[in-house]
Write a structure and sequence with these properties.
Blueprint: H1 5-12, E1 23-24, E2 30-31, H2 33-36, H3 38-47, H4 52-66, H5 75-84, E3 92-98, H6 101-108, E4 116-117, E5 124-127, H7 130-137, E6 145-153, E7 158-159, E8 171-174, E9 180-189, E10 195-203
Parallel strand pairs: 6-10
Antiparallel strand pairs: 1-2, 3-6, 4-9, 5-8, 7-8, 9-10
Helix pairs in contact: 4-5
Length: 207
Amino acid sequence: GRDDYFAILDDNGDVTIKGAKTTVNGAGTETTPLQNMNAEVRSVALESGMSNAEIDEMFNNVDTFFSNQWDKANPKEVDTFIDLTETYDGVISRGMHFDTPEDLDTFMNGVEKGSVIGMNGKNSSWSSDNSVARRYAHMGDDEVNSVMIICDKNVSSSAVGKFARYTDEQEVLSKSDTRWTVTKVDTTVLDNGVKKVTMHVIERTNP
């Protein structure tokens, strides 16, 4: 069932995870938006009692995550980063697509209204712009199996768009232990067998 989720993403590509965009500073050295924002987050981290070494380790892992190597980043370090940044107040969406209806079925196995779901202890990327998530899910493509997850009540996920590759995608990042209660699932099967799923969830305050 859901234990196969990340194996499926390895095959299909987790299109909600994006690489870090680089910029060039005056010395001609490439830096990421994350590094450019170091001072802001570092100040908050120091005030929280973290040492510079701990902060550097956190940044290294977050930079790895945003460099499209999410599977190599330590989720707990990314969680710390999320705790230090601004929680998004509003509805967030996550779009995914799958090669086959069977892959989609594996992801959705046992999921129904009232189910509690997580992301297998991994951080997950969402957007505060529903149209961005729909695009990543390929909801408008009748040849692609799609899942849209809409979180109508976000509690802890952080607005990290300014650190991501495309700032106009309004990225929001969830902690590794975040869990959601499913409130509604709508599934449409097209004539060609392709499946389109829209799932509504609310974040649990007690995972």
